[in-house]
Amino acid sequence: MCNTIKQLLKTNTRLINKNIVVKGWVKHKRTNKLKTFVIINDGSTIKNLQIIIEKEDQYINIGIYLKIKGIIVLSKGNKQTIELLAKNIKIYGIFKYKDLQKTILQPKKHSYKKLREQSYLRFRTNFFSSIMRIRHNVSYLIHKYFHKNGFYYIHTPIITNYDTEGSSNLFQVTTLNLKTNDLQSDFFGENAYLTVSGQMHAEAAALGLRKIYTFGPAFRAEKSKTPRHLSEFWMVEPEIAFFNLKNNMFLAEELIKYIIKNILILSKDDIEILDNKNLIVNNLTKILNKEFKRISYTKVIKILIKNGYNIIWGQDINYEHEKFLVEIYFKYPIIIFNYPIDIKPFYMRKNKDKQTVAAMDIIFPKVGEIIGGSQREERYDILLSQIKYFKLNSTILEWYINTRRFSTVPHSGFGLGLDRLIQFITNSKNIKEVIPFPRSRNKIYT
Amino acid sequence: MCNTIKQLLKTNTRLINKNIVVKGWVKHKRTNKLKTFVIINDGSTIKNLQIIIEKEDQYINIGIYLKIKGIIVLSKGNKQTIELLAKNIKIYGIFKYKDLQKTILQPKKHSYKKLREQSYLRFRTNFFSSIMRIRHNVSYLIHKYFHKNGFYYIHTPIITNYDTEGSSNLFQVTTLNLKTNDLQSDFFGENAYLTVSGQMHAEAAALGLRKIYTFGPAFRAEKSKTPRHLSEFWMVEPEIAFFNLKNNMFLAEELIKYIIKNILILSKDDIEILDNKNLIVNNLTKILNKEFKRISYTKVIKILIKNGYNIIWGQDINYEHEKFLVEIYFKYPIIIFNYPIDIKPFYMRKNKDKQTVAAMDIIFPKVGEIIGGSQREERYDILLSQIKYFKLNSTILEWYINTRRFSTVPHSGFGLGLDRLIQFITNSKNIKEVIPFPRSRNKIYT
Questions:
Q1: Burial level of B109, CB count in 10 A (0-12/13-18/19+)?
Q2: Are A210 and B44 inside 8 Å of each other by CB?
Q3: Contact call for residues A5 and A22 (beta carbons, < 8 A)
């Protein structure tokens, strides 16, 4: 019988006196005159299992993987209820203990930056394995939420020929020899880019399947380096037919609260070992208690001006403004809606005032914008005039325009930044701490 | 009360005499002297709802989205048990019926190729909406299977600096102006490519978390066009520490059978409307009944030679060979294992015979290879000598080599082609029929 440590600790005292095989690696070792005590972990849980070895083995050291056959006994210590009395040990991949000194496997506190520099070893640390298990649970909860609510998971394309957000921060995809290129002969026969959002394709899907969502990577070649941006990040984009901005806000809030409520239960053990665990639990619990504050862009501008910020109507709200609003003024997540036309993409629905569009952004403490969404412009004529107004390429957009040509309905959706959400949940200063192998300007982490 | 048609048909006769709001679009319309009968669908299910309208409305036509308030009544026809007596109808996005003639929304049988040329409208057809709901269920079942079995979902990077499979079919990712490029100033400061597989990063994760899986896009710039290849496809790659080739085969077979067993139940209605539905159900049921045949590469070569194929030991098995083996010889999925070293990537574990590696491919009828996997070479010295043997860049591979340097364990994993699996399940001739917006040489579908 071979189990993960997670399964084993769940079965607990019912295993006493049973023969068990356990596999994992050494996190800690101490020896007294009679016995050696080895703490092993296998990544299935943050919890460890203590192994008792009758005689010392010099090769058993921190970082070494072991396979141990033994008998489960009641623990004499008070840290754990069961431990394993080793009868037979197989040692994998011996290495010199001094080599460990150069790595993040050395048992001491390392800086997050140093951990990141050895991303491929980070998975073996308490900190990062917990982050990864939390990330798994968040991802699973998202799929579960949408599945039980009748949404279909759609794989929108990664390689596209259009810049949905109009940000010009595009990665080009090519098979040309970059030194002697000939654009005509490139793989797709036209310019191809990495997607910045699956939204436009998601809209087409929602107009056929009613409720859909995407869950996939997106890319922005932004040159600025901030602790909240990645060049490659994961996005979740629900899109729903017969859905207005109000419905959209409701869905977004319900989804976030569903995730947070359940992560507090599912990832309890992993949150326990994070820095400021009490603060984290408090922050997460607080989110659940109140409705997110809905406030129009125009009102936000008034508040900012009244509080001494140098901003006028029509300008974009930046991170400093967001911080003031959610951390000092409201002290709670807010949903800002109805933004000026000129600072939002062409596809958002024009409001009756002709000055604003039915956009909404959800702003969270510390991480800022966690969700951006809108009701989409479903009216054929207005969409065409918006494309003209923004001077966009209507030939390349023809398929998108056609989704409104053969009947269409009001529809809405949003993009949830998965990494940002996990950054918020784990209270991580840098978003690079929550994704396995971060990508940013001048750096491909391995 | 507004429900999807799926929810409505589930609640069924309990809704009789209740006031209901239904939204969807017109699939069919017929009028007699007294009434108009309109069939609507909303994408939530392949099933439709019949609406009875007291007087004709010329604007209500095929393709038009409607919002109908009315009362649920017992149906007089025998096709459905309930129908909706319309009291009030809102018509969205009117368009000229003759415009429909140019599109795949026109109610007649279209070729798959024509459907694909209007990918953005395909979601509104019976055929493709069913494929998408099946694709959703397959995806959800995969997440569910891994979650309940203690695997963690890892997001391996899409942008990489290495060609894992050594196939040279790489897409380069760049922010250079392709006409006047300067490689030094490119975004990442080094060559960057789209991933062909998340495996190497998945290995690093498994060595810390024991059981992990990936679920994401992968890319191959293969110039050949076949009905079984996409330039952008979705892959599921489990990777498990303390796992050998035998365990690996068991997991792969169990996963596939779990998906097929459950899809027959979950997607029953959608399979019903596919071409050759009886054949599909028979094929899927047959897969569940027997263990996949395990056979070594060496034995396969002997069978092929005996059956007149011009092949010698050391050559790769091609699609024609695979077809013969699974469709004519064994008439059942097979797992071919222990391939010659020279035709497989460097990271596969060398067998004792020094001629073969612990690889395995699962071959299915019609679609060919559906899974490719191996036990990985965990022995530091042998991995180094393999890298040398294949003349690979050991500097760029240093991080990967280091996953074996500080202890390591036997580990295995495989890649499941999600699109291929769905192609098999839905008995689709072309893989482009099972992904929303296919990408292939010279073509970015919209």
A1: exposed
A2: yes
A3: yes
**Using CB atoms, which residue from B95, B133, B192 is nearest to A406?**
B95
Tokens of B228: 């079984």
Listed by number, the residues of chain A in 24-83 with a beta carbon closer than 8 Å to a beta carbon of chain B are 24-25, 42-44, 63-65, 67
Contacts A243 to B, Cβ<8 Å: none
Nearest CA to A73 out of A63, A85, A57 is that of: A85
Place of tokens 């010329």: B58
User: How would you write the pLDDT of chain A (446 residues) with one tens digit per residue?
Assistant: 468 999 999 988 888 999 999 999 999 999 988 899 999 999 999 999 999 999 888 889 999 999 999 999 998 876 778 999 999 999 998 888 788 888 999 988 999 999 999 999 999 999 999 999 999 999 999 999 999 999 999 999 999 988 887 777 889 898 877 665 555 667 887 888 999 999 999 999 999 999 999 999 999 988 878 999 999 999 999 999 999 999 999 999 999 999 999 999 999 999 999 999 999 999 999 999 999 999 999 999 999 999 999 999 999 999 999 999 999 999 999 999 999 999 999 999 999 999 999 999 999 999 999 999 999 999 999 999 999 999 999 999 999 999 999 889 999 999 999 999 999 999 999 999 999 999 998 889 99
Full-model pTM: 0.97
Q: How far away is chain B from the Cα of A153, in angstroms, using its nearest Cα?
A: 5
Contact A4 B410 (CB under 8 A): no
With an 8 Å Cβ cutoff, is A393 touching chain B?
no
Q: Which of residues 342-371 of A touch B (CB under 8 A)?
A: none
Question: Could you give the ipTM of this predicted complex?
Answer: 0.96
| Residue B439: strand, helix, or coil | strand
Kindly state the tokens that stand for A294. 């809905």
- The DSSP line for A342-382 is GGS-TTBPBPTTSSEEEEEEEEETTTEEEEEEEEB---HHH
Contacting residues of A for B211, CB less than 8 Å apart: 4, 43-44
